[in-house]
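Sync notes, pocket subgroup
Present: LS, DG
LS reminded everyone that the earlier model was apo-only. Rerun requested with 6-O-phosphono-alpha-D-glucopyranose included. Inputs:
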Amino acid sequence: MCGIVGYVGDKEALPILMDKLRMLTYRGYDSAGIAVSKNGHFYVRKCKGKVRDLEQIVDEDVGSGTIGIGHTRWATHGPPSTRNAHPHLDCTGHIAVVQNGIVENFWELKQELIEKGHTFQSDTDTEVIAHLVEEYYDDNLTTAVALAMQRMKGSMAVLVMHRDEEDRLVAAKMDSPPLIIGLGRGENHVASDIPALLHYTNKIYVLEDGEIATITRDSVIISNYKEPTKPDRRLYERKVIVVDWSPEVAQKGGYPHYMLKEIHEQPQTVLDTLRGRLPERPDAPIELPDLNVTPEEVAAVERLTFVACGTAYHACLVAKYAFEQALRIPVTVDIGSEYRYRQPIIGPNEWLVAVSQSGETADTIASMREGKERGARLLAITNVVGSSVARLADGVLYTRAGPEVAVASTKAFVGQLVGIFLLLLYMAQYRKVSRKTAKSLQALRAGLWKLPEQIERILNDDGHVKAIAEAIAAHPSAFFIGRNLDEPLAREGALKLKEISYIHAEGYPAGELKHGTLALLDEGVPVVALATQGAVYDKMVSNVQEVLARSAWAIGVVPEGDKRLTELLGEANVLTIPRNHDWLHTVTAAVHVQLIAYYAAAALGRDIDQPRNLAKSVTVE
Ligand code: G6P
């Protein structure tokens, strides 16, 4: 949801800003802009469109300034246009501002500033920041930004430059949008996300809610914007994080799209997420020290609530099936944007588990705050070390998918599923489970280690799924159906197809189809039937029969060696997954539904990594 970048050092700022913006394009891509300062002059270039459109208009004369800021936008206030693109300037043209987030009281502030004689050029909320800083400026940019922050309400990350203080950037953060400071030698960087910084440094400082940073080439001074004159050097030194992602993992590496590259990284995601946590010896204990829970606390859990958005929400739905069946703990699953507004009831021994790739999704963060206020213990399953979700939680289980760049989440989903199964196995150690369940969990444990090779097999032989996907691409809509753990996967398959191919798709519980949705089935409509769960296989076969009876085109996803559906549908209409513990079929079947979406979107020539209207990290509610 908008990406912001900044640079101050001894190199030319422009190429560095452009490079970082390219890395952040996934956060928003309807307009882009930069401002570079040199000899008391701002060079501002901005346009409607993507960063690659900005590249066309940043001419040489933007030149050799060594300090600057940039922005790539996902519109909230004001339609995408050059006028509404950031950076925004004050009346005098001395102050340049970029923002990620929303200034909720911008209208009131704007009226006040207009009365004071300020003139506005755009429809954005961000422009009020430039004028507010102008209003408070008295030869000290940090103080002026701090005073402006005190006047604003909302959720925002802000980066500001002043022509008369050409040695510094001032960054401030209110509530959730992330702002990362990258610490270099003789230079310092700012970006909304870590991958944009990896070319320059692996030492980062994650700005916290309420903080303001004055950043020069040799120093970063952090304080609270309510008390900007009291810099907290200790805080800064204590919280520097060294990131172990390499710059290469955030590159396409020869693949036509990040999405395909990330689908192919899934064997590694599984391995990395398991390594050092799930001992291969079946009787060795699983230890997850970052969860910060004692065996007694695990034994005492009475209810779990999982909360997330988008793809991560589907991973949580898988968790509900598995946790309830294995641990007999009641599980509630909520969408982030709903949880906080429904006055949730939290029991005495309840854990709230937030699942988030980015760790920055505003609705997920808001739900965690709501849960905390109501007394829940907060756990997080997230992919980004030091993210807001990780910092807010009492304990964390990191998925180790590495940076995910494509807007459509793939490897992070697989990481989340593996994380969820790890959490389940860990908790099972301290809870009473039946003998049958214990046996099943042993198989689950062994099965997790088989996944990397099984995913690899699907990826190495994807001709069949590609052909099916290309045929699906010729249809205006498609359906995904499943039961039990396949039901959330049906939803995920439909979401993937919708978001990148723009084909209308619905993910449905297979048994529910006949209660309305079946009316939409007609000659040749594609229906992907996920039939990987043994306990409900017979029922799935009946549901597929219902689909075939309406002359629709059923495509089965089944474990190898399947007979009945394969006979019914014909091999040409069947995708197989290697046999494993039933619950782990969701992981391998996920690869098929991702490939269906990818190849369908590719056949339609879609902008796969940056689908229209979306953004990867949604930092507004
Ligand atoms: C956006 C992305 C989705 C993602 C969702 C939640 O909508 O496009 O792919 O699943 O946000 O993101 P999170 O980072 O919290 O997992």
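DG: The chain has a mean pLDDT of 93.
LS: Residues 309-312, 356-358, 361, 364, 407-409, 614, 616-618 surround 6-O-phosphono-alpha-D-glucopyranose (CB under 6 Å).
Action: DG to write up.
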